[in-house]
Amino acid sequence: MTESEVRPYDAVIVGARAAGSALAIHLARAGLKVVALDRASFPSDILSTHVIYPNTIARLDHMGVLDAVMAHEPPPLYTSWHHEGRMFVAPHTPVEGRDWAICVRRITLDGILVEGARKAGAEVIEGMTVTGLVGAGTEDDPVRGVTALGENGPVTFAAPIVIGADGVNSTVARLVGAARKRVMPTETMLYFAYWTGVKTRNTQDFFFEPPWVCAHFPADDGHHVITMNGPLTARAEIRDWEDYYLNRIRSIPALRARLEGATKVSKVMGSPRLEGYYRDHTGPGWALVGDAAHFKHPAGAQGIGDAFHAAEVLAGMIADGSWRAAYPAWREADSREFYAFCKHLAEPPGDDSMRQVMDAYIRDPRLARAIVDVWARTVKPWTDVIPHVPGMAAVTGASIDDVLAPYEGERLPLAASA
Ligand SMILES: Cc1cc2nc3c(=O)[nH]c(=O)nc-3n(C[C@H](O)[C@H](O)[C@H](O)COP(=O)(O)OP(=O)(O)OC[C@H]3O[C@@H](n4cnc5c(N)ncnc54)[C@H](O)[C@@H]3O)c2cc1C
Q: How far is residue 78's CA from residue 100's CA, in Å, rounded to a whole number?
């Protein structure tokens, strides 16, 4: 490759994980000449836990990669909640015949997606860092490609559309000036480690120990994820994260019993910076997808599924030419309710409210299934769950508009003056 080389495509994607590879698969299937560029070389890990639900498993199937994922034997999981010695287990309402979730490490999943994109006909170039855009991203000077640096030097990839699938710190978003909007601060942080040799069942288990929630997700290739999610205010008292994490998870008798004879095979990882946001999704010659466009607290476990869903939708709109206006409108309609629910999920739980919801879910298995189906996006919380659980609206907020008003209030003057 030389400095003068310009390589032409129908679409250039920056980032090749959940959003980027999924988009590459759908665009290649639609007949576009597409390249996805990633500075990483796969297999490659990224900070993320990784439970995905029946709706997202169906999308893996549609992308032609589910068999490769299941070859790593992630156990099918029902969802179980535990609080004060009581528990319930619930399956999901089946989506395409599957009523379970799976947990697949990103080091496994993302490499399979990259290979899936190549099989679909996309080019994926690893070890290629995008450093600039061709075009300013204005109506007069739309984005027409990217400049990038690979191991053999700089290259220009030209295309009528550049899509940033490059995560929370998106280079494309920065270069086009797409700032975070409707930022939803979080009160909780999430930390986790990988384990092997954990005694297991076919459940993902959430242990509610207000204000903490610890969870056990059996994952692929015999690995297990054990998480602790708790108040940001606790950070000040934590001197040694490894010690704190081990004491926290071992304080839960059921978890301690499962960990007898198990081995922790990673350091403790996680982040206190989990605030939600939106960015403008499109502009002249560019679009954003995945975390680059929209992020929610990972207690919602939706980032991977949403990245696949948005990639599928955006690909169809790029193919029919409607993407510039139709894609942001779709996102608004699709995401607003779950964004509001994430406000609740990102707050530390309390014992009183946990007693109320556990009463309701233990009494009515249909309601228990409905709450776990919120994560599969087959149930709407403010229609199908909250009105049926005594006291829940006082904790979640009575309506989507009530919850989002403080954040969308920031957005409205901007939209009006744009
Ligand atoms: C602690 C934590 C737990 C989570 N748990 C879950 C969960 O249980 N379930 C779930 O669905 N989601 C979960 N998520 C969210 C999920 O990880 C993200 O939503 C998902 O990774 C988004 O995928 P993406 O492809 O948009 O971005 P990313 O996975 O961030 O990929 C972006 C890619 O872009 C590349 N890139 C960036 N800049 C450049 C550049 N300039 N040039 C070239 N390449 C570039 C990067 O190398 C990277 O490979 C969690 C997130 C966190 C932080």
A: 5
Among protein residues, the one with the nearest Cα to ligand 1's atom 9 is 301
Asked if 300 and 375 count as a contact pair (C-beta separation under 8 A), the reply is yes
Whole-number Å distance, alpha carbon 353 to ligand 1 midpoint, is 32
pTM of this prediction exceeds 0.90: yes
Determine the Cα–Cα distance for residues 361 and 137; give it in Å rounded to an integer. Answer: 50
Tokens of 305: 């599924």
175 lines ligand 1 (CB under 6 A): no
Homologous superfamily assigned to 6-73+105-183+275-337: FAD/NAD(P)-binding domain (3.50.50.60)
Taking only the tens of pLDDT, the chain with its 418 residues reads: 455 589 999 999 999 999 999 999 999 999 999 999 999 999 999 999 999 999 999 999 999 999 999 999 999 999 999 999 999 999 999 999 999 999 999 999 999 999 999 999 999 999 999 999 999 999 999 999 999 999 999 999 999 999 999 999 999 999 999 999 999 999 999 999 999 999 888 999 999 999 999 999 999 999 999 999 999 999 999 999 999 999 999 999 999 999 999 999 999 999 999 999 999 999 999 999 999 999 999 999 999 999 999 999 999 999 999 999 999 999 999 999 999 999 999 999 999 999 999 999 999 999 999 999 999 999 999 999 999 999 999 999 999 999 999 998 754 444 443 3
164 lines ligand 1 (CB under 6 A): no
Residue minimizing CA distance to atom 30 of ligand 1 = 167
Residue type at position 126 = E
Distance 361 CA to ligand 1 centre (A): 33
Q: Is ligand 1 within 6 A of the CB of residue 107? A: no
Quote the ligand 1 centre to 303 CA distance (angstroms): 8
CA of 167 to the centre of ligand 1 (A): 5
How close is the Cα of 307 to the center of ligand 1, in Å?
A: 9
Ligand 1, residue 305: give the atom nearest the CA.
Answer: 11
Which residue, among 37, 42, 39, has the nearest Cα to 7 in the 3D structure? 37
Q: Three-state SS across 189-236?
A: EEEEEEEECCCCCCEEEEEEECCEEEEEEECHHHEEEEEEEEEHHHHH
**Using a 6 Å cutoff on CB, does residue 305 contact ligand 1?**
yes
For the chain, the domains span: 6-73+105-183+275-337, 348-417
